[in-house]
Structures are given as structure tokens and as C-alpha cells.
Amino acid sequence: MDRDTPHGGLRDAPAKGQDRPFEPEVDGVTKDVTAREYVAAVLDCYTGLPDTPDRPRKNDRSLAQRLYEQRIPLEHVRAAFLLATSRRWFRPADADPLEPIRSLHYFVPVIDELQHTPPPSVYVELLRDRLRTGFPAIGVRGLAQPIPW
What we know:
Blueprint: E1 25-26, E2 29-30, H1 35-47, H2 58-69, H3 74-89, H4 108-116, H5 121-133
Antiparallel strand pairs: 1-2
Helix pairs in contact: 1-2, 1-3, 3-4, 3-5
């Protein structure tokens, strides 16, 4: 994704062809994924996060489709979800509470950040683990409900 493009960094999509498969890499294995499968996976992950709506809105679905058309790997989107959730969750105890996340667009800057500098898979797993367990040694609790994916 380019930072110099409108709409939160996403480039305009290539020519239509909504259900053409592309092959993201997942755990070192390439798998064909249709637009429908990709969009469903992104929206399922998004709505499973804390402080997000129970159901995606139309603009969330449109953005997920654009992410597919831009060939953003699902693992990058999931990593962005984990990183943004960690940043929200592990804040100073005296910080003002944050408003709930109302749109998938909230994550676009983090997706853009990780497209430019993908994190090592070990770091993503550490984030997932820390969200589950917190930092008990310093009294920071993890999420009440772990992220399901």
C-alpha cells in the first residue's frame, strides 16, 4: 500500500474480477483463496476482536474486498489486527479509555505499516501470546476472551 494515495493508503484496485483466486502464503504454504473466502476471513477476524462491532458494516465488507484486490496477504491483515489490538490493550493504566472501534478502516494505517515492514512471525506469535496472558509480572492482565484465530 502506498502512503501517498487517497483513502487511507490503499491504491485503486486493478480491473474487476472479484472471485479470481490469488495465492497468499500461510505458514509457508500457498493456498488459493477466492474473494468470498478472503473477505469472510477478514470480517470474521475483525468482528472477533475486542471493542469491534458484532457484525461488519457494508463499508467493512467493501474494504475487505479492496484488501483482497490489492493482494494483501491475510496473515498481514491478521498481524495488523494483533498489533493494533496490543497497542490499544497495553496502555498506561491511567490513560483515558478509548472509544470502541467502529470500522475496519481503523486498521488501515497498521496494515499499511506492516506492508512496508512485515513483522517476523515470532513477533506475531508473541503478540498473540501476550494478548492471551498479559504481563503477570507487572500486573497487566490479558484479554478476557482470547482472540479465536
